[in-house]
Amino acid sequence: MTEEEMRKRLEILKIEHRDLDAAIDALLAAGAGDQMQVARLKKRKLKLKDQITQIEDYLIPDIIA
């Protein structure tokens, strides 16, 4: 995967992460949210965050000063 492809993938993951956050908030605000569904969405959101972090770490390596 090229750096450009990784940057595009990173942007897609960030958008999906924000969308999941909004979906979780909407379900909780409606009060009719199925707790299992909310838990699944939160789990998916955590997986996305891990993928985002992994790509960001690759693109922006730590520099030891």
Topology, element by element:
Elements lengths: L2 H28 L4 H25 L6
Helix pairs in contact: 1-2
Question: How would a textbook summarize the main sheet?
Answer: none
Our count of domains comes out at 1
Element string (H = helix, E = strand)? HH
Distance between the termini: 29 Å
Q: Strand-residue fraction?
A: under 5%
Strand runs, count: 0
Counting helices, strands and paired strands, the structural category is: mainly alpha
Shape: elongated
What value does the Rg take, in angstroms? 15 Å
**Helical stretch count?**
2
The helix content is: over 70%
**Whole-number mean pLDDT:** 91
Unreliable stretches: none
Organism: Novosphingobium malaysiense
Protein name: DUF465 domain-containing protein
Keywords: Coiled coil
Coiled coil: 3-58
Structure characteristics:
mainly alpha; 82% helix; 65 residues; DUF465 domain-containing protein; DUF465_sf; 2 helices; coiled coil; 0% strand
Describe the structure.
- By secondary structure, this protein is mainly alpha-helical.
- It has one domain.
- It contains 2 helices and no strands.
- It has helices spanning 3-30, 35-59.
- The longest helix has 28 residues, at 3-30.
- The radius of gyration is 15 Å and the shape is elongated.
- 3% of the residues are buried.
